[in-house]
């Protein structure tokens, strides 16, 4: 089966690429802007993040808490991070790309699914329009969060 593009997002953020990456990648920040993430638990907390590093992500979706094992398939800070998770629905992949521009950072997000079977392929194609509502809110919260952190740091000097 072929990979299905479920969601894309792009936005300019008037903040330094290092700050944007920190807010996107450090768990202490992620749980503050992403309302679905409860926590991410590193499988090997003593090692640095690299391609192949794995973690368990605990997420709350509606009233249900799920745990998913995820793996970094790309890791080139602060420019690209890709995370893959193998679930019953298939292999989901989220790629975060950051690019510098004169006023700050361009954030690009791409979410795809390689369905595990025809059922999940059909459901994903029928329902992928709904991902926009969920993810847009998360990434708008992310941008607001980056500006809040930037403001707090500017105030502290």
From TrEMBL:
Residues 15-122 form the Activator of Hsp90 ATPase homologue 1/2-like C-terminal domain. Signal peptide: none annotated. InterPro entries: ASHA1/2-like_C (IPR013538), START-like_dom_sf (IPR023393). Belongs to the AHA1 family. This is SRPBCC family protein. It comes from Cytobacillus gottheilii.
């Amino acid at each position: 089966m072929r990979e299905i593009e479920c969601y894309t997002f792009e936005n300019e953020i008037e903040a330094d690429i290092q700050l944007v990456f920190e807010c996107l990648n450090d768990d202490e920040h992620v749980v503050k802007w992403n309302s679905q993430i409860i926590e991410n638990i590193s499988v090997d907390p003593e090692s640095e993040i690299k391609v192949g590093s794995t973690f368990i992500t605990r997420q709350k979706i509606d009233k249900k808490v799920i745990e998913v094992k995820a793996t970094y398939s790309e890791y080139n800070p602060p420019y690209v991070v890709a995370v893959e998770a193998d679930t019953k629905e298939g292999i989901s992949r989220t790629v975060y790309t950051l690019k510098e521009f004169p006023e700050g950072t361009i954030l690009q997000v791409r979410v795809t699914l390689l369905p595990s079977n025809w059922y999940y392929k059909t459901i994903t194609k029928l329902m992928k329009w709904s991902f926009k509502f969920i993810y847009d809110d998360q990434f708008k919260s992310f941008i607001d969060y980056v500006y809040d952190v930037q403001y707090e740091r500017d105030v502290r000097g």
